[in-house]
Structure formats: C-alpha cells, structure tokens
Protein 1
Amino acid sequence: AVFMAIHGLQTGLILAYKSALKGLKSNFWEKRRMDLAELNKVAGAMTAPGKGILAADESSGTIKKRFDAIGVESTEENRRDYREFLFRTEPAMKDRISGVILYDETIRQKAADGTPLVKLIEAAGSIPGIKVDAGAKPLAFCPGETITEGLDGLRDRLIEYRELGAKFCKWRAVIDIGDGIPSQDAINSNAHALARYAALCQEQQLVPIVEPEVLMDGDHTIERCEAVTMWTLKTVFMELYYAKVQLEGMVLKPNMIVPGMKCATQASDEEIAQRTIRVLKDCVPSAVPGIAFLSGGQEDVEATARLDAMNRIGGVPWHLTFSYGRALQHAPQVAWSGKKDNVPAAQAAFSHRAEMNGLATLGEWTEAIEKKAA
Ligand code: 13P
C-alpha cells in the first residue's frame, strides 16, 4: 500500500509538472503574439507612407566631424541646441518624420526651457528611438574589417532606454568592400551580432532596426556591391531566423546598390533603383513591414531621387522609406553654421529635405518640385 501511495504521488507530480510546463509554453506563445501585434504597429508607423526616419544618432566622434566641417565647436550645449531646433522644426517633424534615432547623450538631454528632447519628438507625433550599439571595432585576424560591439549588458540598457521613452532601437553593422574583403568571418560575426541584438530588443518590447551597411567607400563596381549586399542580407536573415526574431516586428535598414564612390563607372538613378529592388526581392521576406534606407554618403538629392525611383517601380511587399542621417542634415547644418540667427533658415532647409524625401516614399518627387520648393 505504501508503495502504491508513493507511486501515485509520483505520477501525480509528473502530471502536474507537465501540465504546468504546457501552461507556461502556451502563455509564452500567447504573450509573444500580443507583443508582436504591438511591435508590428510601431514598425508600421516608423515606415508609414509619406514619412521616414531622421537618423540623429551621431556618436560624439561623428557629430564632432560634422560640426568641424561647419566651424562649430562640439560642446554639449551646441549639440543640444542643434538637435533641439531640428526636433522643433515645423512642418517637417509633424508631417514627414515618423521617428528619430537618438544617441545616449541626446535621449537624456533637455531643451533650453527644460522640456526633455524626447517630449519634443513625441509632441510632434513622431516616435523616439535609440542607437544601442557601441560602434564598429577591429575584428581579430581580419585586417581592415570590423565587428560591431555592444551586446554585453544590452538587456539592462534596453530596459533603461524603454523607461526613457524609446520605442525602437538601431544597431549598425559595417561591411567594407576591398581587396580580398569582405571575409566570411566578418559577414557571419556581424550578422550573428545583429540577430542577438534584434532578439533582445523584441524580448524587451522594442522594435529593432537591423542595419547591415555595405559601405560605398572605394572603387568597386556596382556588380560587386550587389553581390556583397546579397551575401550579407541572406546571412542576416538566416541568423535572424535562428535567433527567433519575428520579422513582422522589425525594420530593415540597408544600403542601396551603388558603385563605390571612386569607381570610374557610375550608375543612373534608374539602374540603382532596379538593382536595389531586385536584391531586396531576392533576400528580404515579405513579412518585414518596412525597409528604411541609409544614405551612406550619397548626395542629398541623389538619395531622394533614388528612393523615388524605387517607389515608382513599386510592386514590392514592404514600404520603402528613408532613415537618413547626412542626406537630411547636411543642408540644415550648413545653413545653421552655429549661429542663432540662422536657425529659421536651417529649419527651412530641414523641412525642405524632409518634404522631398516624404514625396519620394510615395514616388511623387520630381526635379521640378525640388527646384521650385528650394
Ligand atoms: P547616413 O544616412 O548618414 O548614412 O546615416 C544613417 C545612419 O543611421 C547610419 O548608421
């Protein structure tokens, strides 16, 4: 009898354990489905037709380079003043900027009147986001190549950023083309890091912008850019799958297919648009809600014309928009040049670029509008 009682108890315990496990699992999937609906909503808003993302997440080193070019000292106050007037720009922020990528310093900064900069963005109906990578560092035994760092401690940083108001994040991987590069090691390591980052973001209810940037530096051909971008994107989506990232809750930020800046044979906007669409169709599942291009060193108007050309081709399952840094900010930076009196002119320059790129997301930009409005 004692034996039977113990046996019964054991069976009961095993059954209870199994059913608890099943409950946990179904709660897990149930919760993921609900979380995904919310992530998908944010990703959709970030890439909504007519709007795009302002990449204002220059690290301290990069913003210093930009300020040096216009003769402005890179102090915390100057950086604040500059970004404050961008985020206060009407009508650009309300009509054309779906989201703003911030840098760690900026997400904590307050405007001159004490309003947190995050609140200025929200007040314009735009979504605040944050760059969370720690930059590209030399990759061991791969001369000339880098690995983007920042995974250690990332979960805790994401929790803090979410409390500061971020709804999405960005991580940039850098793939350089040159003699004998990229290596398989560089592509695999960077794709793996992007996937670990993206999974952590979704776990913390933040939309990851997945940015594998194939650089346009150098003299390589457009065919080389196409082949390397294809290799990179295929590897990235494989790693995203292994990391259980849900594609409906992310945004892809790729480069366009362009020849190297020093390549003797340059390409028309039409060719760039066609090749870019072809590569994306081949590599990006239709579950991804939106694709927001980086500008990567293209001239302002080039970046607009090429986005427009892609949206005129159309017939793709994702919204194609912009997540430009330089192509949105170069003109306002030059107009501003650190002088208070120039702020209205700088804001007009920013509104103009935002408006032109907004039209390009609809395939409604023309050179005539570009000139007339300028
Ligand atoms: P650019 O548009 O200047 O390339 O910057 C976009 C960006 O966020 C790069 O990470």
Protein 2
Amino acid sequence: MTVALASEPQSETYESESALLMAGRPVANIIRKRCNEEIAALSERFSILPGLAVVRVGDDPASLHYAERITQSFSAAGLTVTVESLPPNALRAMLQAELARFSALPEIAGIIMQMPLPQQIALKDVIDVLDPEKDVDGIHPLNAGRLVLGLDSYAPATPSGGIALLDHYGIPIAGKSALVIGRSDVVGKPMAQLLLARNATVTIAHSRSRNLPQLVHEADIVACAIGKAGFIRGEWLKPDAAVLDFGASMVDGQMRGDVDFDEAVKVVGAITPVPGGTGPVTSAMLLRNTVKAIRRALRA
Ligand code: NAP
C-alpha cells in the first residue's frame, strides 16, 4: 500500500504497509513560521537584533557545509550569523579567546561551538569560557543540569525536535515505554531526559547493552542515535511502535538512518524517514533556541 506523508506534497510517497511517515519538513515549517513571527515582532521593537556566532576549527568539508547551511537559513529568517573559522592546529588559548570574546559581546546572543573538537581541545576548555546564557546548543553543564531538574534551559535541538515530531504526529508519550539507543551528550542523554519529563518509562541502551533486540521489542517508542546505517532490524521492533531515527550515516553517497527503513516501515506504527525526518526539525529547533537567546539578550 502507498502512503502519502501527512501534510507533505502528494508526490512524496513511500511504500508502506501501514506506518505513518513522520516527515520533518511540515513540523520544521511550523516552528520556523513561529520564529519568523517572533523575529518580526522583535525587529519592530528593537532597531538591531543581536545575532548568532558559529565557532569552528579545521577544514572538514562536512563541518564547513553545516556552517554554510546555518548561515543561509538564519539569514533567510533575518538574523545575522558570524562564522569564526580557526585553523586545524588552533591552540586551546586561541579558541578560548574567541569564545570568551563572543560570550562578552552584546551583538551576539547565541553561540554554537561546532563539533567535533580537534584532538588538542577538550569539551571542558569550551565550557570553561562559554556563557551558558548564549549556549543555544545546550552543551554547557548548567543547561544540561537545568534540563535534568526540569528547569527552563536550552535543550539540545535534535532531541527537542524528536519530541516536537511525536507531538505533531499525535504519538502519546506519557506512560509509554521508551527506548533511547545511544547516550551521547547532544542526542541520547537529553532525549532520555525529555521523554522522562513527558512521563515515559525510559531505558537507555548503548554499545555495552545486552540483548538489544529484546529491549527494542519491548519499546513503544524507539529513539535511535547510534550512527550505524540500518543497524536496527525491522523484526526487532514492536508492531505499532513509533520510531525516531536520528542516525545520519553516508553510505554510497546516500544518507541512511540507524533503522533498516524498508523492513521497519512494514512493522511499526510511525517512523521518521531518513533523510527528511529528524534533520529538518533539528535546524528549526536551533533557530527556536536562538530566538529565545535573542529575547534573553534584549530582556524582551
Ligand atoms: P555518538 O556520540 O557517536 O554516540 C553514539 C552512541 O551510540 C554511543 O552512545 C554508543 O554507545 C552507541 N552505540 C554505538 N554502537 C552501538 C551498538 N552496537 N548498540 C547500541 N548502541 C551503540 O553519536 P551522536 O553524536 O549521538 O550521533 C548519533 C547519530 O545521530 C549519528 O549518525 C549522527 O550523525 C546523528 N545525528 C543526527 C542529528 C539529526 O539532527 N538528525 C543530530 C546529531 C547527530 P557507547 O556510549 O557505549 O559508545
């Protein structure tokens, strides 16, 4: 049976037995529209809005491409982006000086430190000088801690986008059994916290977990952030489960998720496609966090 993506152009269709395709673009469009309205309202009140700084090290093409994409999408929303690119061999002191400068500058409301960091620089070196009020990626321990305590924080964009997808497609969370596969600080751990805050019963799996197929089979909601294409097999999944696939691995020039999509789509109740699922919502959530940082900076 052919199922059209909800709220997507009819030409974008996927072969599926019954699964709801949780496309990211419609969700991202709604978030962006709200952000644009907020930016327009702020621009009426303040002649100049503070912008976003993206700090990056090295010349990795994927990292450069990411910085360009942020610049394009934020500029389209009427925001200023300053990209500071440091050489691959940048010293810790150099990076810290840039981050400290942006942390102090009133023209900058939000700062993204692009990952991965080079070998010579540790995450601690970044958070030692990053103003948590400008930490729109939610990497600072103060924001991570506030998220755990259920206080207002900058929740990392990717997992916040996962919750937005579940909400948009009407997937209930409270009381459900949720499995998060992957425990990175930017995706897995905050995803687990956000699901817990929404009253799911949460299990976190990682590379040392035993019997992953069984854990997957028990979950109503599966959120994967592993980085291994097609690793989660369709037969592991519970019928009618909702699957958020954050995986983004390039295989033969194509982006692939962590879940074997062709198998899973025949089994589950709802699933995000890759590409076009969690990715677009992540960048919209980053914009949302930045608008929040701008309001904070302007005390608006
Ligand atoms: P990461 O830091 O490399 O973490 C990967 C996690 O997967 C680790 O916790 C690791 O466990 C776990 N893992 C590895 N092999 C496993 C296995 N066989 N069974 C169970 N768990 C296993 O990765 P990340 O930064 O979270 O990113 C994960 C994926 O999401 C990547 O493909 C990345 O490109 C993608 N991503 C997507 C978005 C988006 O917007 N869609 C945003 C960010 C990242 P250990 O902790 O035990 O090593």
Protein 3
Amino acid sequence: MVFHKKATRNEVYIVAKIIDGKAISAQIKEEVKQQVARLKAKGKEVTLAVIQVGNDPASSVYVGNKKKACEYVGIRSLSYELPEETTQEKLLSLIDELNGREDVDGILVQLPLPAWISEEGVLERISPSKDVDGFHPQNVGALCVGKPGLVPCTPAGIIELLKRSGIEIAGKECVVVGRSNIVGKPMALLLLGENGTVTIAHSRTKDLKRVTSRADILVVAVGKRKLITREYVKEGAVVIDVGIHRTSGSKKLCGDVDYESVEPVCSAITPVPGGVGPMTIAMLMHNCVESAGKGFN
Ligand code: GUN
C-alpha cells in the first residue's frame, strides 16, 4: 500500500487518483518562466539550439512543441533544420560551433537521426554543460554516482509527478519495466537516488507479472500497447505510463498500460494523453535554465 504524504505549509501537492501531468507541467513552466525572467533581469538571455535532421513528421511535431514551449517561458530558441542527406561531419561541425558560442546554453539534437549518422558520436560531441537532454555519458555517469548534472527529461518529469502528488518514494518497491537509455535506466537511477528499492524488468525478464506485482510504484516504458493489465498490478500501487500509441483506425491515444483495466485497482495513475507526456518538455525547459543559470545565481 502506498501512503501519500500530506502537504506542509510550503509544499503544494496535487493529490488525486488521476495524476494530472498537464496541471503539474503547467506549474513547472510557470516556475521556469519566472526563473527565465530573473536571469533576463541580470542580463542573461536563456537560449536553446534545436537541431533536426530530415523531416520525419513525428520529429517535426516534437520539435515544434519544444519551440512553442520555449516561446511560452521566454527562452530564445535557435532552429537548425538540416536536410536528410546531411553528413555526420557537417552535423558535428555545427555542434562544435554551438558548443563554442557563449550565448547558447542548451543544444538538443532531435532523435532519431538518419541511419548513416552515429547517434552515439553526435550525443558525445555535445558539451556536457549544454546537454539539456542529459544523454552525454558524463551526465549519465554523474547521475549514476549521485553528482550534479543534467538529467534526462522524461524520468526527471516522472520524479516531479510523484513528488508533487505527495507520493513518497523512499523505502518503496519500485519496478521499472523497460531499460532504454532515455527512460528506463535513468528512471531506475533517479528512483534509487530517492531511496526506493528498485528493480528493472525488460523483454528477457521471466514471469513479468510476478515482478510487477510487487511494485508499490510501477513505471512502464516498453513501447507495447496495453501490455500491463490488472493482473500485473498490486492493489493500491501507483502506476506511471510512459507509452504513447495511436489506437489503430482511430485518433485515440493509449499507453503501455491498459488504463480501463488497471485504474480500478491502483491508488494513482497517469492517463495517456495528459500524464507523463507534457512533463518531458517542461523538464527540458527546466534543464535549459539549469544550464544557463550556472554563474548567474
Ligand atoms: N526523440 C524522442 N524523444 C527524444 C528526446 O527526449 N530527446 C531527443 N533529442 N530526441 C528525442
């Protein structure tokens, strides 16, 4: 059973069974907006460079949303739309140029990249201090050993969802389903950093139901629609759904969790859409301020 902590005078929690990512991300964006304004008053304009290679429609939507969020919170965004046939050399030289620019605080290269470009090579070229995605091995290492660094946006957003919903992590059985570098692994490290007891399950896990059924906090990031039904969930668990899928033949979205089946047995759950999704961009904005704020606070 998960016990939700009561809000003290200085903490504003949004306590509800359905965790409202839209409301919590709006709260974070308002905080970021104020921080951006404070930096501006000190003469620092927060700037994010966004690079997209090619014109994958999904990537274009994500990049468009990131630029809109920048505009909303007052961050200047520089947009680099490179043609599909861009070489790795060209992309790396743009990153080098942006690394060297004092007026650029964050660099984001939208993934996926064309097949002939090494994702690893590109992500490692971004200066760790401007790596607002938190994907550079130096930031991953910092997260692993509990040192300050830039943290991947989706798992950082999930920690905010839990904390701002008054959900305690310390001492809880946390199960993360999925071991990607973008979500699963950093999620497990962040939960561990909050003193959770953490298990990572993945495609080779034997008897997944047995593993997920012991979770007080279950985070699902596997990219398989409605994989998690009520048989996988302990009564009273908190369920966080990172998946997003278009229901075939309709415009409706669904997650990795079968919401209708799981909602009646859990104590809190993120909906799709409107749960984890909006948090990623809010935390990207937060990371831009983190990066820009160094030396200005
Ligand atoms: N493509 C899908 N998700 C992400 C993300 O979080 N960051 C970047 N750079 N590309 C992505």
